[in-house]
Amino acid sequence: MMVNPRAYLAEAIATYGLVFFGPLSVILAIASFGEELTTQSVFFISIGHGAAIGLMVYAFGHISGAHINPAVTIPMMITRKIGIADGIGYIISQLIGAVAAAATLKAILPELGAKVNFATQGGPSDLINNSIGSGFAVEAVLTFFLVTVIFMVAVHKKATPGIQGLAIGGMIFLIHLVGVPLTGASVNPARTFGPALISGFWEFHWMYWAAPILGGIIAGLIMNYVFVKKAEQEA
Fold it and tell me: Which domain of life is it from (predicted)?
């Protein structure tokens, strides 16, 4: 069964929300706390991304499921929670929303934003010796836990109702708290693609697609076939 076309618009708006408020929190953190990452700036960025996702989940979860992320939609397609055509529509909508948000930031804060490539993630940091392998692992593991939380609080039939936004937003907060100093914490190809397209900064871009999608698929398969299916059979 195809979803209502309004779901595509919901995905575009929700992803716009993430890629507006998330990168804006990065730009403002740099302006306020300096270009070196500080405890304050990481906390500020983590709140910015976590709140944006949590609130968008509450706003649009009942319309589209609020995937906001190709690395969430692809596992949903593989586990047949959404059809292939709709999944592709979701991903296109997410990318459009992300590009529109990054373009808005360029219009509002052209110089400040350009300093940080409109918050495009910059690849593996010095903390992990600029290692692509370590960076890939970080992004894959962080996305694994994001998709785990999504399946267990938003898809599982026996999940506590009404906590989706809090749980998923909280996970995004935690991911950014530990991930920003290591890889910039993408866990979302759309979140990286929008700012990359607007800034023209494409270094390590493949990693921010491949690692989150791999981590998301592994989580989706395990959560679906070990936990979610069992609850559906019992329901």
Answer: Archaea
Q: List Cβ neighbours of 162 (8 Å cut-off, separation of 6 or more).
A: none
What whole-number distance in Å separates Cα of residue 46 and Cα of residue 169?
A: 10
CA dihedral 140, 186, 164, 213 (to 10 degrees): -40
Read off the pTM.
0.96
- The whole-angstrom separation of Cα 207 and Cα 132 is 8
Residue 80 has pLDDT above 80, yes or no: yes
Superfamily of domain 5-234: Glycerol uptake facilitator protein. (1.20.1080.10)
What confidence category does residue 235 fall into, taking pLDDT thresholds of 50, 70 and 90? low
Q: Position 97: which residue type? A: G
- CA distance linking residue 128 with residue 113, whole number of Å: 26
Residue 55 to residue 40: CA distance in whole angstroms: 22
Pull the structure tokens for residue 69.
């992320």
Q: Where are the domains of the chain?
A: 5-234
- Taking the C-alpha atoms of residue 133 and residue 130, their distance in angstroms, rounded to an integer, is 9
Report the largest interatomic distance among the alpha carbons of the chain, rounded to a whole angstrom: 56
CA distance 91 to 153: 22
Tokens 């690395």 belong to: 71
Q: Are 171 and 149 in contact (CB under 8 A)?
A: yes
Q: How many CB atoms lie within 10 A of CB 14?
A: 28
